[in-house]
Amino acid sequence: MIEQGKEVNKARSIYYAMFSRFFAYSADTSRYLELLNFIDILEKNPLDETTAKAFKELKKILPKDSNASLLTEYDKIFEDPSTSTIRTTASFYDDGLESGKKRLEVINFLAKTKIRRDEKSFTENEDSIGFLFSFMAELLTLVNQGSEEYLELSTCVFKQVINNFIDEISRDIYEHENAKIFKQVIILLQAFMEFERMYLEVSKPKLSEENTKEIKQEKEISEEEKQRRAKNKLLRAKGPKKAQEKSEEPFIAYDTEDDA
Known about the structure:
It is globular and about 40 Å long. By secondary structure, the chain is an all-alpha fold. The protein is 63% helix and 2% strand.
């Protein structure tokens, strides 16, 4: 049973690692090659027929030698102000703020570990969808390496943060006018989230019509969000950062001074 649990957690960590490379922006081609490799691995044992088709479609539309198509679509969906850009944080979907209660919750979870957001190369908040997936992948990898105390923490991150906004942001991405690659990604993501709910025995949350309406009606981009996007452009211009020594996950750093 223990070995079976390790295999399941290994597969879960690969899924989270794959999604982190879709949702955590990086111009580093090595990250893109890792993404293609994760797709090859997971395609061999899809969750169902729908995800099998989605994997095949992704392999058709993702070039093997260039990440340009993915980066362009990412920019149109999440960054380009000329389109209906989608916000990526749990806080935004929870209370309409780009830095709200959910960000604080994730920071508190991080404080229980030595894992940190690499602020030098990643300007999005700790509760952004890309960082959350990287965080989950890292936690599950550590669990399989023997740090079993992080298993409960990973479950809390899913229950208290990811589960509460993943359906709404998935819907928004799937319906975006520029989504092509990400349409297939969302098919995979929704299936995996349903697996996570069954595996962790977590109920699917009811969508709040009031909160959804409030989020949909918000048009203005805050000054904080404008600054974040400007920093992202500067980071892209400088080129990709070197990979972290202690983690293969995008934009994960380790606190080497304080004990967790």
